[in-house]
Amino acid sequence: MKVRISKEVEMVEEQPLSPMARVFQSPEVDYCGITIMGFKTKFCPDVLLDALKHNVSKHPRFSAKLSEDGAKWIETEVNVEDHVVVPNIDPKEIGEDGQSFVDDYISRLTTIPLDRSRPLWDMHILNVKTSDAEAVGVIRSHHSLGDGMSLISLILACTHKTSDPDNTTIPSLKRRETVTHGLRKQGWFLRSIFTVGSTMTLLWNTFVDVVLLFATILFLKDTKTPLKGGADVGRNPTRFYRRTISLDDIKLIKDSMNMTINDVLLGITQAALSRYLNRIYAKNHEEESRALTSNRNHLPRKLRFRAGCTVNLRPDIGFKPLADMMAKDSKCRWGNYFSFIFLPFSISLQTDPLVYLEISKSMMARKKHSYHAELVYFIIKSVLKVFGAKAAATIFNRPEVNLTTCVSNNIGPMDEISFRGHPIAYIAPSNYGQSQALLVHYMSYAGKMIISMAVDPTVIPDPHKICDDMEESLKDMKAALSERGLL
Predict the structure, then answer these.
(1) Active site residue 143
(2) Which of 16, 197, 326, 411 places its Cα 20 to 30 Å from the Cα of 447?
(3) Residue-averaged pLDDT of the chain
(4) Catalytic position from the list 143, 160, 422, 441
(5) Which pLDDT tens digit goes with each residue over 264-318?
(6) What is the 3-state secondary structure (H, E, C) of the chain?
């Protein structure tokens, strides 16, 4: 069945791509977003087809294809059957481990490009039982359609609370105050001194970050480690791994250490990657198995290990109803309105696991007091306007190549949600096509924190061990706080 575009949509036949969307259309930066969802029941494909037939025409990006020069969206008729894939699976192919079958299937998808003659998305339904789901859905969309916030907002708009089918669940989020409540009570003189000092620090931090940005674009590379990929990473198949940890434990640590959830997650990530790399370096030194489990430090000195961290540039953060995101001049617009910053990870063995949290808190406080993210977006937009998409893609991709990894975090629904009677067990967003061998995405969902990793298996053959290290790091941090009576 073909879905025709409504008269309201036909008034605008072509729309230009946003600056970041133009970058993602370049051969050097050909990223795709992938969202993996587990369902608690077997999935009926007819339900999905019916929903798409009635709603896909309401969304301009999902009912438009690219122009030949990749600069404009051209509205088109959508045959939803072309975008929904339900493979006929022989039970013998699945074997005893449904998760391995699902992982292999999704990995093969990363080698199959999206058809550019039609809208750049598709959906796959796998009625295969895994350890934590009865069926798995995979949404694949080109990154030029929108960033993670946009796509998760679309999912929320199509679902409802499992416990209350008449209501959707839109998580709210507020920015933290930059001026403390105590300072507001001080006199104008002290506030003026704080303002001047804060402004000078902001300008200095921004200057340093811009210098490091251009150095990274031109020559500054991270140390070659077992986690750093080579030039072929973006062309290799990508595999995805997932682990669920307690959101309540993360919140306990957040409150005890007076930090944000992002700070806690970055502390966990640094601790886990330090453990993982230390084990690998120990093996390379042909240590005995007994020594491998000890606390001996085998990490190289002066290790430069940086992570790109995505930053939402919208004035309103958190998810909004889809209609609000599609509205003109919205403060929470649909599209690719994000930038990135560089985080210098501390890869080291610490006897006190809370040190990782203190490092991440200090690092993020420093990065928040800088216009790094805004300037990156401005520079890419300016280069695109003056020199074209290829030059802008180079500015975007060179730091990605020279950094080791990328980390992002999305807030998700606070309650379990369902899609037309199909309860969702988990939501795991990720990407592929990037120039890094390891991507780490965090997403909260229904009282859980879901860790989703995208890896190049030729570089990282055992990513489940990184997930194990994350779980152990979280336990160690919680135990250290409990021993000190802080929980």
Answers:
(1) yes
(2) 326
(3) 86
(4) 143
(5) 999 999 999 999 999 999 887 765 444 444 558 889 988 999 999 999 888 766 6
(6) CEECCCHHHHCCCEEECCHHHHHHCCCCCCCEEEEEEEECCCCCHHHHHHHHHHHHHHCHHHHEEECCCCCEEEECCEEHHHCEECCCCCHHHHCCCHHHHHHHHHHHHCCCCCCCCCCCEEEEEECCCCCCCCEEEEEEEEHHHCCHHHHHHHHHHCCEECCCCCCCCCCCCCCCCCCCHHHHCCCHHHHHHHHHHHHHHHHHHHHHHHHHHHHHHHCCCCCCCCCCCCCCHHHCCCEEEEEEEEHHHHHHHHHHHCCCHHHHHHHHHHHHHHHHHHHHHHHHCCCCHHHHCCCCCCCCCCCCCEEEEEEECCCCCCCCCHHHHHCCCCCCCCCCCEEEEEEECCCCCCCCCHHHHHHHHHHHHHHHCCCHHHHHHHHHHHHHHHHCHHHHHHHHHHHHHHCCEEEEEECCCCCCEEECCEEEEEEEEEEECCCCCEEEEEEEECCEEEEEEEECCCCCCCHHHHHHHHHHHHHHHHHHHHHCCCC
pLDDT at 324 over 70: no
For 408-445, what is each residue's pLDDT tens digit? 998 888 889 999 999 999 999 999 998 899 999 999 99
